[in-house]
Amino acid sequence: MIPEELKRTAIDLVYLEAVLLDERRWTDWLALYDPNCEFWMPMWRTEEELNQDPDTGLSHIYYSSRAGLEDRIARIRSRKSPASSPLPRTTHIIGTPLLEEGSPEHCVVRTSWSCHVVFPRRRDPHAFFGSSKYHLRRVDDGWRIFRKHIKLVNDYIPTMLDVYCV
Amino acid sequence: MISQALRQKLERCVDDRPDDGIFRIHRDIYTDPEIFELEMKLIFERSWSFLCLESQVPNACDFFSTYIGRVPVIVSRGEDMKIRVFLNTCRHKGAKLVIQEQGRRKYFPCPYHGWSYDTMGRNFTIKAEASGQYHDAFKAADHDLIQIARVETYKGLVFGCLTQDVPSLEDYLGDLRFFVDLYMEQSPSGMEFIPGRAVYTYRGNWKLQMDNGMDYYHLTSTHSSFLDIQAKRRDGKGNQAARQFDWAKRETQRGGTFLFQYGHALNWLSQPEAEKRPIWPVIEEIRARLGDLRAEWMLHLKNCIIFPNMQIADATSLLIRTFRPLSVDETEMRVYCMAPIGESPERRAWRIRQFEDFFNPSGFATPDDTVVYEDCQAGYQSGGTFHPGFEYGQGCERGRTIFQTSPSDLARQLGIHPTGSVEGGFELQQEMCFLSPYREWRRLMCEGLAQEEQQ
User: Fold this and answer.
1) How far off is chain A from B13, nearest CA to CA, in Å?
2) pTM, to two decimals
3) Is the CB of residue B88 less than 8 Å from the CB of residue B73?
4) Three-class SS of residue B101?
5) Phi/psi at B124 (nearest 5 deg)?
6) Which residues 6+ apart lie within 8 Å of B440 measured at CB?
């Protein structure tokens, strides 16, 4: 059994990630992830089926370590990326997280989410939505994400998609 | 009756005066709804369009659904194994018969009233026909699916045209085939798309994508954030899994463009990091099969436009991109990652990581291109003639003084006969490649309009 306190902090981490992305606190956001984390958002294989293996099918984003996320933040911060300047504004709405498996050292949290985005060039809002599955690992001062698997439900993309849109 | 004003509008869109060193594109070409409607009719209905790979419909009864311009079509491999292309619309009330992009079916039933067609397009059911009290005129009519006028394949690429009066696909591709072969012969077993594809839209004219896919001049400005990341990766920091190219090395390379008939052009750049190409581990097989010259050119970076709806980029990974005009200021993109059939799992994963890193609409480069198309559209949208010359862009100037229409030594070495070429260092970042698609645009639009006038 997972102690209530640990359960609460695991679920809080999911909410906290959304806040950090919406507030563009990139350093704090990266710190939620283990350096060896996997970050995976597969493409759909057909209208009804997601790709199941990042090494044989395409993904929107696939990283086998945090370095890929760090590259993304470097690009956003550079102010040299036209797609990231002005930076789209986002609001994440997070459905109540479900603790699927839990032990004091490892837990799995699932949630549904939507992310409302205003792209400065298009002005009108767009909502990306889907669900995510977090694998969290216990560290001294709380939890770290060591695997995040994102199912992007509407992957007909208006112009662009970045890591803060999901 | 076609107005004199329309003819003049089309003629001024592409201001082509080679003797004066002038080639200018009018901003109307990206923004005028009347021009867009004519493009659908005079370009997309009267040119070869890329539809799919043969390997997307390998078996009897496989289908793939796509568009030629705005017209929905089904590519169907019949039970007789022949590939046919039908308009994706029921003969009865017009409903699209196939919604899925890809699949396998023995027949195509209409979801509305149940009229059904086989994989050869033959209507075999008109629901409750016997009780329908149909007139003889209806019974005598042909109810089969409408086949498009021309379907041909080249090296596994399936093309279709809605009208009859086009050259054969081989003649249409012309000597661009030398390079198409280099894309399509990377494996002795043929080429396939990796499962999954990116579909995205942008608020801009389709020709903005056509232009960008051939534009090297923008790399160091639009993609400077990507080049910075590459510089960091060179020092062993950041995501190494993509095994991406070091553009600082490429900027020291030689490159150029070849122009071909019917609107095609190919840009190339020599390859300083052959070992970063996923075909490198099998290059000896390729050399043995195709010879040293073709193997060397297979490793080079090569981007081409196959006018009007397709680009192939063999730059970082190998992609096929199609663009579907939705309206004068909106375009849908489909981007696929192409790979040799039978590639080893390790090379396949490497290829996928390279593709995602650069070309995804969630990647490090494509989003920066796509938003810039929207900026161009917004900039062009104003129209107006209040400042002399304002209506024309200045985007086809680089490389003018070394542009040659006689065969270059390199063209002779490759055994090709381009209609024009430029060769130089990367820093040239030529824009002569745009002459080819826009000259073809002007030919099709002006000749097409003249034909309309005669009818």
Assistant:
1) 27
2) 0.96
3) yes
4) coil
5) -120, -5
6) B262, B263, B307, B308
